[in-house]
Structures are given as C-alpha cells and as structure tokens.
Model the fold of this input.
Amino acid sequence: MLIDDLETPSFPVQPIAQLLVKVAARCNIDCSYCYWFRDAAVYAKPKLMSADVRRQLLRRIEEHIAKYSLAEFPLTLHGGEPLLWGAENFHRMAEACEDISARTGCQIPISVTTNGVLIDESWVDCFKAHDVMVAISLDGPAHIHDVHRRTFQGTGTHEAVERAARMLLSHDIPMTALAVCNPAHQAKEYFDFFASCGIRSYDIMIPDATVDEDPPAIAAFYKDLFDLWLDANRHEQTVGIRIVTDMVSALLANDSPTEGVGYSPVELCTVMTDGSVEAHDVLRIAGDGVNQTTFNIFEHAIDDVRNEPRWKAAREASINLCETCRRCEFRDACGGGYLPHRFSKENGYDNPSVYCDDLYATFEHIRSVLESHVYIVSPDGERRKVSDELARAAG
Amino acid sequence: MGILMSKVIASLLQMHGPDATIQSDHQGIDALLSDMRGQISRSGDDLRPADTIGATQVYFRRGGFVRGGYGGGAFRRGAYGGGGGFRRAAGFRRV
Done:
C-alpha cells in the first residue's frame, strides 16, 4: 500500500461557518433510535427557545457575519422537533435574518429538519415566504418507517409524514428526505418508495452507533444503493442520494460537502434553547452531559466556542484519526467515518468507526466502478480510461 | 490499486499536461466531476480545492442543505433556491 504520509494533515483555522439552532428541545413523537434523548441533560433545557434568546442569537449572528465579512451563513433550525416552536417564531426569525442580510450583504439561507407531522398549509406558506429548505425525516415505506418512528401512543407516523412530504412537493418547497438505513431491508425498497412519491433528493443515513455497540452490517445495503443511483443517473440526472454522491465526491476529489463523509474538521456549533453553545449535537450518543459547556450567547460571541475545551476536543478528534485510519488507503475519502461512530468508553474517539469494515467495502466497490467510468482526456482529444491508465502504470 | 483515486487522477492529469481534463461517460458522475473539474485541473498534485475568501461550509448531515435541484432544474450543488449559488465556498487545503 502506498501512503505518502501517516501524519495528520493540518487544517487552517476559520470562523464558524454555520449554526445548528435548537429551537425546541422536546419532540412530539418517540423514535426508538433518536440520539437526542440518550442524554438526559436535554430535559434540563427549556422546551422552546425564548424571544430573549432568539433576539440575542440574532445579535450574535450579525456581529459574527460583520466581524468575519462572511458571504453566507447558513442556519439549520433543529430540535427535538423544531416546528413545536411555532410558525410565528419562524416568521420572526426569518424576517430578522432577511434584515441582517440586507444590512450586511451576507446570505443567510435557512433550513429546517423536521419529522413533518405538524406540517400544514400555514407551514407551507411560511417556508415559501422565506425560502426555507425543508429536510423531512422519512424512513422510506411505511413498513420500515413505522418500526422506529412512532407516536408516544405507539402508532406509526408514516401516513402523516408522507402526506407532508407530498404537500411540500406539490408547493415546490425545496425539500429533501432524510431516512435512516435499516439494513434488514433492501435499499431498493427505499429507492422505489421515494421514486413513487416523486422525491428526487434524499439521504439514507448510517444508523448512529458507537464502538461499544454491535450494529448490523451495512455494506451490502450501501453497495446496492450506489448501484441503484448509478443505474438511475446513467443517461440523465434523475435522483440525488446524498451519501452516495458524497462518497463519490470524496473519492474523486476529497470534496464531500457534508460532515458525515470525508476528511475535514468537524466545526459545527450548536446553540441550545437556552442560548448555551455546544459542539456537535450527535456526540450526545457518547452519554450524559458529554456535550455540555459553560459557553452561551449572552456572555460569548459565536466564534468564542472555538476556545471551548469540549468543542476543541471534538474538532481535534475529528482530524486526529486512529492508526488504522491513518494507514488506510481511503483515509481522505472516508475521514474515519462519522465522528460519533468512532466513540468508545475506553478510547474516546481513538477508534476506527464501528462501521469501518462496511465503509471500506463500500468505498472499494464505488472506486472499482468509478475507474471504469472516468476518463482522462488529453489536449489532443484522446480519451483514456482511468482503469487502463492504471493498468499501464502498474505494468 | 493501492493509492487514492484522487492521487491517481492528479498524477494522470500531470502526465497528460495542464490542459487535460477529467470526464465521465456517466451523467451522474460527470455532473459531480463538473463541480470538481476546475479545482482538480488547477491543483496539480494536491486535489484539495483551491483557497478562496470565505469560510468553508461542510453541511450538517441531518440538515436540509442538499441542493434539491432534482425536479427543479439545478443539480445538487447548483443554485440555492433558484439562484444564490449556495455551495461549498472553499476547501481545506493540506499544508
């Protein structure tokens, strides 16, 4: 294996580039796999973000944008279930962001990640009025979705969520579906369902698990998913499956645009309902209180979080890979997998992902296909298949 | 093959000169390449995207910032909401 170096590359320091805003700490449904409520500390937070916190957050956002002359500063409104915050609060937040954009010239695109149950015409109007992009949690067809995504009364939520997704599509709201992989089912079941709904942009995320757990293998699922994407987009672009395109991008140019794939620092900043500031919210799967800091937006600027020990520890962990990862030929494309999946009580984040074997097999599969579809075209127009060039170089 | 795909492509591009391009016969792959083509051809032996002014955005995994152009015309990293060009602005450069 040819690895040019085993040292950790350095990554330049940069200001916080986006915010994850927890506008609601509670949820209106009871998903069995939710990472959020694995940490009981969330119950100590206010259920909803107050007007005082919202106003202070907006002040901090404008201050941050001005200080660093940012051209874009995306916000993701999140929870719990963020729609519990109410459409009126969404309007106020979005209008205030539009005012900041007008004053600073910085775009502040807003997205919301929702379980979709509460979406109705008034929400559609709100999303439309402010160009809010919507990520709706929908685990494919009902027989998969309703296994985990249930109400507190134990009934499935699929019917309501599918209805919401179709409503968003019918109103041309920019929408993507976020599913969680259940490897007991075939990738094609998800693929066919989303196609039947007309959902052409979605992700099927790797289930959250730590190294201390023993989740089922997922390689076969993701190899199948890649093959489905490959077939569907062969002659025209018909469907976007984020984890697939992220893995392809990561293999081709180390350029995955999301934090779940690729080798780059995790620099997420999470603002809680009380204005406290934390690092990556999914690190909650590591246990109670692991994410809590003493920083908050009333006493600290947004970028101050970069000096917060737990935030720094998460960033360092995301780029300081274990030896197995540093020696791996897919280091740059994989980046050790999703940070929370590297956690163990014994070693912290100094582990390969609990899904390491699956990620390796999936990258290997995708790479083998890419080699036969990618060409180098020389200035004189000669087209050479990468796989042929590789064989020639090896021979 | 025991080395990174990106390194392979970089070395092949070097071998075939600065005007060589990378293409695919697969529409989905080629669309992803189109975003990367400029940075690959510029960056020589280091495929990290070129530095530009502004902060890098690596989008939140469970967020909604997937370019939802399917059905709306633009491809994944095309326009945000029809024209903002909201996309990863720069890359981390290995130093």
Notes: The mean pLDDT of chain A is 92. The radius of gyration of chain A is 21 Å. The CA atoms of residues 58 and 232 of chain A lie 42 Å apart. Chain A touches chain B through 94 residues (CB under 8 Å).
